[in-house]
């Protein structure tokens, strides 16, 4: 079996993190000579297209022009094709502007794919791809558990001022809690500026770091007692996995894909509205000892093995 894997090994965002970890895991395994990795921004050329003749499966991670073209060409040549679905551009277009051509690329890739690997059952259901779906969640680089000194009044949020992250609503709830209970909860915010950024930054307890190196984000998680992912929709959420790694209490909305791999408890609470969010924050703020969060998350090595088995089955 020979596989050509088209992904993004440069950007360092969520999908790129997946590609980098899958690549690194496969290159360390006994399947290293079976998979060739190609950067998704590579220009199409005759030499690139010729690669199709030497492989059995084209796998595209995410959406790209190169990926779409290679999937089309592979199917014309009688080869198999698959894709990792990190999210849905059609769904994202409800929250922010998505270029029409990118939505077209996604549609063609989905049509060409023999199998689609969404990162959660939630995504498969919302994107209506269950007939082609084999769910492969993102992996986690588990770190050794150690005693971490937490700042009892610190919360970390990741996702910046993007409206769909609903961080403005989180801040409104925290202000209410601070005022009502005379607390001094502080919030570290990471991520790109968006529609809600100016309003979010009007709260005195917010420290907005913007885009930051992962080391700075991890440092904040290691200090924070609570991490909140109150998004309108998250296909998975590597940020939640990181928060678990750094022994945070976690609160998420009910539309976060990683939830299906986690056992709910007072340490990991799923909420549906601002009232439940307020109650969850107060409960976790007052908790004296965090219990470990039971989960069924995979290492990147296990995730890579799942991809290889899917390709072999094709």
Automatic annotation (TrEMBL):
Transmembrane annotation, as ranges: none
Stored InterPro entries: Glyco_trans_1
Signal peptide range: none
UniProt-recorded Gene Ontology molecular function terms: glycosyltransferase activity
Cross-referenced Gene3D superfamilies: Glycogen Phosphorylase B
Gene Ontology biological process terms from the UniProt entry: carbohydrate derivative metabolic process
Pfam families in the record: Glycos_transf_1 (PF00534)
Superkingdom: Bacteria
Glycosyl transferase family domain location: 144-285
Name this protein carries in UniProt: Glycosyl transferase family 1 domain-containing protein
Organism: Photobacterium aquimaris
